[in-house]
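Action item from last week, closing it out:
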Amino acid sequence: MKILFALTFVVIACGGSAKKPEGAIVKEGPAVPTSCCCKTFPSTSEDGKPAYKMAERMMCSSDHGECVDDVQCNASTSKD
């Protein structure tokens, strides 16, 4: 009798996951582009200023750079 009670309790406690409502929309984060404005500090730079260039995110990471706003890339390429 104790075993039957224990099994009944286990079945009730582990009844399974709740049903998901039909038509539920899965929210996802914003799409991240594969390229970015990569800011690096080249070791050959005499003035110590960072270099900005458009690059793939993985390439920027391998160059020990960081992705910054595209505005900085556009500003660095303009001729003043």
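Closing note: The first helix runs from residue 2 to 13.
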